[in-house]
Amino acid sequence: LLMHMPGPLNAEQEYQLRTIQHSTRQLISLINDILDLAKIEAGRVDIHLTMIQCQNMIATLAASLRPLADAKQLRFVSEMPAEPIVLRSDERALNRILINLVGNAIKFTDQGEIRVIVNQHINEGQAMVAFAIHDTGIGIKSADQARLFQEFGRVDSPEVREREGTGLGLRLACQLAHVLGGTITLDSTYGRGSIFTLKLPANTAADT
Question: One Pfam family, short name please (predicted)?
Fold first, then answer.
């Protein structure tokens, strides 16, 4: 109908159809998140380990999400060392985590920039890869930060209520990170922005 195949639509009809289309997509996304969370919590998630070149993954991620930042006139910056960073993990799960974190950063930032920083380090003798997503958005009060990692966890404030979301995305990202042997941490200052950091072992164990 939106392609006007049956005939032209008036403005009100087109608005209503776009609203239905958008709501349907939101509902499908919510259902998929609930199903994925249920699979993870039941221990039935399938992990397929491959060698991932992080610079290539971030370049692809930036290409897909930069238009969202451009639409809000936000700078989108990625910082990575010249030397390739390679890790053994599940590419689909990692990509989903990063899309969630970067997408949230864009959603809750109205001016300034989104900066994705990737580096590799050694922690207690184990090689780790860190993906830090910095934003200059609305920030999160200390009292509200733990709630974000719970199912349907959303901050009850005017700044958050006016933005779409189910409160499941970050919980799902954290669960996927755990399955991959990693963690997601948050450092945020209300009114100044947030840093979400995903840390993963460079070589995820096959039985994780």
Answer: HisKA
